[in-house]
């Protein structure tokens, strides 16, 4: 029998990441001196699309590049990396840019100029017939316009796909229509606090449980909150649990770790794996990704994720 790869449609941004390493991230109003300026390819959408492809999926990446040399080079690179050209659109704008500071511990601060990403509209997507016809999972973030995410999720729902939303960057409340179309919500701890209306980011198990419950109460059946070196906290109809990354991971750059997580999560969900197993695989991918510079530099292969996931530890949390 033919061994068919799971199909993941990723809708999202492509950015050129301009990165400066600093000893310490600046506070508001502070100027700090940094190292060399480096350029990498990034954007939450592209990072997640490549993460899914490396983790074993057939990926259609729907994105908008500018009509500039950066856009030409990025388009070529995506195709050379094994993504189909079908979803790569172009418009008269500059390709998205992200300004990123990374400190000595690998933590970052990011500001994004969306550029062409802001022109990935439903109208432009409709011009390419069948663009969104791709099951088994639709994965999106919020660096592209809301209506396009809605359009992709509506199509996904009609075709029986699982819709996964990584609500990053946090941008106000999520519209109810979008929540109704979301099957799995995967925020980081800051985004989770923001969406759940909490005054501070969760730290203790009780606070994570409260945040995850608040998100589930918004009508979502499965929630997973990523929490950097702590791993990921999941809540579904049956259980709450932590998946902890392996100990002793060498951290060089955490930029894109959440994207490696989401891309891998989508692959396992597309394979119809149980939620806990999908989160274990995703935590493994996220922890593998932090060992190299740049958002896409450390994206792991499926083989590496599977090897590393043996050391991901589960901690069950009592619900209620
Ligand atoms: O999640 C990391 C990504 O966020 C970077 O690659 C940057 O482009 C921003 O989109």
Topology:
Blueprint: E1 7-11, E2 15-22, E3 34-42, H1 44-54, E4 58-66, H2 69-80, E5 88-91, E6 96-102, E7 108-113, H3 122-126, E8 137-140, H4 146-158, E9 162-165, H5 176-181, E10 184-185, H6 189-196, H7 205-216, E11 222-226, E12 232-235, E13 240-244, H8 257-270, H9 275-288, H10 302-308, E14 313-317
Parallel strand pairs: 1-4, 1-8, 2-6, 4-5, 8-9, 9-10, 10-11
Antiparallel strand pairs: 2-3, 6-7, 11-12, 12-13, 13-14
Helix pairs in contact: 1-8, 6-7, 8-9, 9-10
The structure holds alpha-D-ribofuranose (RIB).
Average pLDDT figure = 96
Q: How do the helices and strands follow one another from N- to C-terminus?
A: EEEHEHEEEHEHEHEHHEEEHHHE
How much helix is in the residues? Answer: 25-40%
Count of DSSP H/I helices: 10
Poorly predicted residue ranges: none
Give every kind of bound small molecule, once each: alpha-D-ribofuranose
Short description:
32% of the residues lie in helices and 24% in strands.
Give descriptors for this structure.
single chain; 320 residues; alpha/beta; ten-stranded mixed β-sheet; 14 strands; 32% helix; binds alpha-D-ribofuranose
Task: Walk me through the structure.
It is a single chain. The protein is α/β, with parallel strands linked by helices and 320 residues long. It is built from 10 helices and 14 strands. The protein has a 10-stranded mixed β-sheet with strand order 5-4-1-8-9-10-11-12-13-14, with helices on both faces. The longest helix has 14 residues, at 257-270. The protein is globular and about 55 Å long. The model has no long low-confidence stretch (mean pLDDT 96). The chain binds alpha-D-ribofuranose. Residues 13, 15, 17, 42-44, 47, 98, 110, 112, 143, 255-256, 258-259, 295 line the site of alpha-D-ribofuranose.
């Amino acid at each position: 029998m033919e061994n068919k790869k799971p199909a993941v449609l990723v809708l999202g941004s492509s950015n050129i990441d301009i990165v400066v390493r600093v000893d310490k991230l600046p506070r508001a109003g502070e100027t700090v001196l940094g190292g060399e300026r480096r350029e990498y390819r990034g954007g939450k959408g592209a990072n997640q699309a490549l993460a899914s492809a490396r983790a074993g999926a057939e990926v259609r990446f729907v994105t908008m590049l500018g009509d500039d040399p950066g856009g030409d080079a990025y388009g070529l690179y995506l195709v050379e990396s094994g993504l189909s050209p079908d979803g790569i659109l172009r418009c008269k704008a500059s390709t998205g840019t992200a300004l990123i500071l990374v400190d000595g511990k690998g933590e970052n601060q990011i500001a994004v100029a969306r550029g062409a990403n802001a022109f990935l509209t439903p109208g432009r997507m409709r011009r390419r017939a069948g663009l969104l016809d791709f099951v088994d999972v639709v994965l999106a973030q919020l660096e592209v316009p809301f209506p396009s995410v809605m359009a992709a999720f509506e199509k996904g729902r009609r075709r029986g796909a699982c819709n996964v939303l990584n609500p990053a960057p946090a941008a106000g409340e999520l519209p109810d229509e979008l929540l109704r179309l979301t099957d799995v919500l995967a925020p980081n701890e800051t985004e989770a606090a923001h969406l759940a209306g909490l005054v501070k980011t969760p730290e203790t198990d009780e606070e994570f449980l409260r945040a995850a419950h608040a998100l589930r109460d918004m009508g979502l059946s499965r929630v997973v909150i990523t929490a950097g070196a702590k791993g990921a906290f999941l809540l579904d109809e049956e259980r709450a649990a932590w998946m902890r990354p392996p100990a002793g991971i060498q951290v060089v750059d955490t930029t894109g770790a959440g994207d490696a997580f989401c891309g891998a999560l989508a692959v396992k969900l597309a394979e119809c794996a149980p939620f806990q197993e999908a989160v274990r695989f995703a935590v493994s991918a996220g922890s593998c990704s932090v060992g190299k510079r740049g958002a896409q530099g450390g994206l792991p292969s499926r083989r590496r994720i599977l090897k590393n996931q043996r050391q991901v530890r589960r901690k069950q949390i009592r619900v209620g």
